[in-house]
Specification:
Length: 379
C-alpha cells in the first residue's frame, strides 16, 4: 500500500433537529454578533423563522438572492469590519449560500476587491469562523475549503479557496432539507454522485478516500429514486444527506474529474445547475473509462468479486436507467449548445486541466468533443 495523506477537519453535528446545536456553539464560543447568509427562498419559511427566533444575540441577515453567485454579487453583499462587528458567519441554504458565507468572511477581513482572492490561499488570515447549515444534500460545501463564483466579465467560474474557509462547524439537519423542492433535491444528490465516483477513480485517490466514496455513492444511488417519489420521507432525506456528506469527504481528499470540469462551462454559459451539469456527463465519462480498460468501478458497486468488466458496465447501465427515471437530461441541444460552440466549450473545459489530469484514462480535447457530440445527437 502506497503512502498517502487523508484530511478531515471540522466539527459535525448530524441528525433531525441538530440545528438546535447552534445555540450551544454560539454560547461555547461567546459569540455576540453573527451574520446569517440565507437563501432568499428560505427566509420566510416557518421552520427557519422559528429557528432564527431562538437565537437571541444580535443578528445580521444577508439574503443569498442568486442561484449561481457571481463576484459582482459577492462584492454587493460585502460587509466590512469597520461597519459591523461580526463574530461568525453562518450559511443556511444550498451550496451557493454556504459559499457566500465563506467568501463574505474573507471579505470581512480582507479589503481588496473580491476578484483579487480568486485562486488558492490569496487572502490573509485570520478570518471569522464559518458555520455551515445546508438545506440541500450534495454540494459538499459544508466540509470543503472552497467557494465557487462566476466572473461575469471573463465568463468563467473559479473560486475563492483556502484552508481558512473550511467551515469550523457543519450542522447537518435532515429536517432542513424537507423544504428543498424536487429539482434542487435531484441536482444536489446527483452532484454528490459525481463527487464520489470521480473521487473514487481519481489518480490521487487513496484507500480512505475510496472507502468514503464507496459508502457515499451507494447510499445516495440506492435511495435517490425513492426519495424523488416521497420528498416528505425524513428517513430518506437523512440517508441522502449522510451519503452526500461522505462523498464530500472523498472529494476533499481526491479531487474531481472530467464530468465536474465540463459542468463549469455548461453552468456559466447555459445556466445549467452545477449538479445536473456534472450528472449529464458522468455516465459518459465512466463509460469511456471502462471502454478503455478501467474496470475498478466494480469496487464502487461492491461487485469486484464478479467479472470486473461486466460489473463496471452494469454500473453504467444502472446509472443511465436512474438518470432516465429522475429526468437528468441527455441532450445538450435543449440548452442551446450548437456545433459552432463546441470549440469554445472545449477551450473553457481545458482551463480546468488539473481536474482532467486526475482521470484514470487520458481525457482531453478529443475526448471532450467525443462526449459533446454524443450528447448533442442524443444517441
Amino acid at each position: 500500500m502506497k503512502e498517502f495523506q487523508f484530511i478531515f477537519k471540522g466539527n459535525i453535528f448530524f441528525g433531525n433537529g441538530s440545528r438546535k446545536q447552534l445555540k450551544n456553539i454560539i454560547s461555547d464560543n461567546n459569540y455576540k454578533n453573527v451574520c446569517f447568509i440565507i437563501d432568499q427562498g428560505l427566509i420566510n419559511l416557518r421552520i427557519i423563522e422559528e429557528f432564527l427566533n431562538t437565537i437571541s444575540i444580535h443578528k445580521i441577515i444577508v439574503k443569498c438572492d442568486i442561484s449561481e453567485p457571481t463576484y459582482d454579487k459577492l462584492e454587493e453583499k460585502r460587509i466590512s469590519h469597520s461597519d459591523q462587528i461580526i463574530d461568525a458567519f453562518i450559511g443556511i441554504g444550498g451550496g451557493s449560500a454556504l459559499d457566500m458565507a465563506k467568501a463574505l468572511s474573507v471579505l470581512y477581513s480582507n479589503e481588496k476587491p473580491a476578484l483579487s482572492y480568486r485562486g488558492f490561499n490569496l487572502f490573509d488570515g485570520p478570518i471569522k469562523p464559518i458555520i455551515a447549515m445546508p438545506t440541500t444534500a450534495g454540494t459538499g460545501s459544508e466540509i470543503t475549503p472552497n467557494a465557487s463564483f462566476i466572473d461575469s466579465n471573463e465568463k468563467k467560474k473559479m473560486g475563492i479557496n483556502g484552508e481558512l474557509i473550511r467551515p469550523a462547524y457543519a450542522i447537518l439537519d435532515p429536517e432542513l432539507t424537507l423544504s428543498c423542492p424536487l429539482k434542487p433535491t435531484i441536482s444536489a444528490a446527483v452532484d454528490s454522485l459525481v463527487h464520489s465516483s470521480e473521487a473514487f477513480a481519481a489518480k490521487k485517490t487513496n484507500p480512505m478516500a475510496k472507502f468514503f466514496a464507496i459508502e457515499g455513492f451507494n447510499i445516495v444511488f440506492d435511495n435517490l429514486y425513492d426519495l424523488t417519489n416521497d420528498l416528505e420521507n425524513i428517513e430518506l432525506r437523512g440517508k441522502i444527506m449522510y451519503g452526500a456528506f461522505l462523498s464530500g469527504i472523498a472529494l476533499m481528499n481526491s479531487g474531481t474529474g472530467p464530468a465536474a470540469a465540463m459542468s463549469y462551462p455548461l453552468g456559466v454559459h447555459y445556466g445549467v445547475p452545477h449538479g445536473i451539469g456534472g450528472g449529464i456527463f458522468l455516465p459518459h465519462v465512466i463509460e469511456y473509462n471502462i471502454s478503455n480498460g478501467f474496470f475498478e468501478y466494480a469496487h464502487l458497486m461492491n461487485s469486484a468479486h464478479k467479472n470486473k468488466k461486466e460489473s463496471s458496465f452494469n454500473l453504467v447501465e444502472s446509472m443511465f436507467k436512474l438518470w432516465h427515471d429522475i429526468d437528468v437530461p441527455q441532450d445538450l441541444t435543449k440548452f442551446g449548445l450548437t456545433n459552432d460552440k463546441i470549440e469554445f466549450f472545449i477551450k473553457d473545459t481545458m482551463d480546468l486541466k488539473p481536474a482532467l489530469d486526475q482521470n484514470p484514462i487520458s481525457f482531453y480535447e478529443n475526448e471532450i468533443e467525443l462526449i459533446l457530440n454524443k450528447l448533442m445527437t442524443n444517441k
